[in-house]
Structures are given as structure tokens and as C-alpha cells.
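ok so for the tutorial part 2 we go from a plain amino acid sequence to predicted C-alpha cells. step 1 is just haveing the sequence, like this:
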Amino acid sequence: MTLDLDLAVKALGLAIPLGGIIYTWFATRQKDVDEAFTAIGKRLDTGSKRMDQHDLDLMSLQQTVASMPAKEDMHRLELTMSNIGGEIKAIGAHMGAQRDVMRRLENVVTRHEDHLISGSGNK
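step 2 — the prediction. this is what the C-alpha cells look like for a chain of 123 residues:
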């Protein structure tokens, strides 16, 4: 009977630590798995927010590009600016001619004034 009792004590001495080891392994394993899933969930949420922000940035960029003038619009604008430049040159030439006419008129008026002033001083 002492052999059975001695064997039972030894078996119990072995079973209790083994039971503790197994319980601890399962308990910490579940905790580690829960922490890993929580960490993965946070990373997925962060990635989802970043992808949403990238999507908004892409839509904004697409709207900006869509509102930009096309090649044909820029060509038309270049032609129009060229035409305006030609018209400004024509206006400049016309203004130069007007300036020359005004100089001649000023000379005529100055001569008339000089004639009237000198003519009134002789009498």
C-alpha cells in the first residue's frame, strides 16, 4: 500500500505541474492570439483610413486634371494672343500717326500764336 501511495504522490506531484503548464500554455496562448488579432485589427483600420485618404486625394487630382484646359484650348489661346499682339502693333502704328498729326497741328497753332503775338506788338 505504501508503494501505491508513494506512486500516487509521485504521479500527483507530476500531474499538478503538468496541468499548470498546460493551463498556462492555453491561457497565455489565447491572450497572445487576442493581442495579435487586436494589433492586426488596428493595422487594418489604419490601412483602411490611409486608403480612404488616398482615394479622396485621387478624386481631387482627377477633378483638377479634368478642369485643366486641353491642348486645343491652349492652341486657341496662343492664336488669340498672337492676334491680340498684332492688333496692339496696329494700334501702336495708328497712335504714332496720330502723334505726328498732333505735332504738325501744334506747330501750326504755335506759328499762328507767334504771328498773332508778333503782329499785335508791331501796331
